[in-house]
Amino acid sequence: MLRRHVICLFLVLLAAAAESRAQETLPVAVLVTPLETQPLPPLKPDVHEAAIKQTRAEMFAVAAQLRKQHGDKTSNWLPEVWKQFYVAEDAHTLAVARRDYERPETRLGLADSVEDFVRGVGGNKAMTMVTGADQAVLVVQVVGRRLASASGPTDNRYFIRFRLTPGGKMTGARFLEATQGYKWDSLWSTVIAHPQDATGYFELEAGSPASYKNGAGMVRAIVEWFIKARLDPNRKK
């Protein structure tokens, strides 16, 4: 009798897993939308720099402690260990982002970047656009834009801040599973904050040396790369 119950439970779990994966077929349904966020109280430049310096020092201290406890080979760290580091890392990157996105103009033009993202999706085999979060597997929320000085012509100057969150067609638990260990940081993208639990989201920044239009194209590319790497049912394991 026990053996029969174990087999039945296994079949139920297998069917549930198959059902959740069945939703992740290419192209993946994506909603892109602007998101107005409540601005934080402005800080003086020296206060910003003090917060950035302090959170950087705390991040390095946490990293050093975790290396002592779990070894220098970070590829062997368990997800729980990385989560401890991300808390400290996010405190630092959020302090930097608070400075960079403090000006009111960084909250303008969000709808333009949404339109630029959507306009370039035609013929894309990885994603298709939907108009409601309940229809989406992934939701991209554009929350900020900024223009920065650059030391060289190939350095990023135009930046778009955005959030990636599961839509109605993906559970928060599945989102955490799919994103576990994925490398977001590159020459064109930076992680600002990691989800701490199944209700969270990734906050990222995409950069371009040319224009906000190209920056929106980079946001689209970042989402597309993730879909192909983690949600394509035919990807190589």
Describe, in short, the structure shown.
With about 240 residues, the chain is α/β, with parallel strands linked by helices. The protein has helices at about 1-20, 45-70, 80-100, 110-120, 170-180, 210-230; strands spanning about 30-35, 125-130, 140-145, 160-165, 190-195, 200-210.
Average pLDDT, to the nearest integer?
91
Give the overall silhouette.
globular
Question: How much is the radius of gyration in Å?
Answer: 20 Å
What order do the SSEs take from the amino end to the carboxyl end, as H and E? HEHHHEEEHEEH
Number of strands: 6
Structural class, judged by helices and strands? alpha/beta
CA(first)-CA(last) distance? 36 Å
Give a quick account of the main beta sheet: strands, pairing sense, barrel closure: 6 strands, mixed
What report would you give on this structure?
This protein is α/β, with parallel strands linked by helices and 237 residues long. The chain folds into 2 domains: 26-39 and 105-237, no CATH class; 43-101. Helices cover 45% and strands 17% of the residues. The chain contains 6 helices and 6 strands; from the N terminus they run αβαααβββαββα. It has helices at 2-22, 45-70, 79-100, 110-119, 172-179, 212-231; strands at residues 28-34, 127-129, 138-147, 158-166, 189-193, 202-208. A hairpin with an 8-residue loop joins β5 and β6 (202-208). The radius of gyration is 20 Å and the shape is globular. The two termini are 36 Å apart. Mean pLDDT is 91; it is low at 5-22.
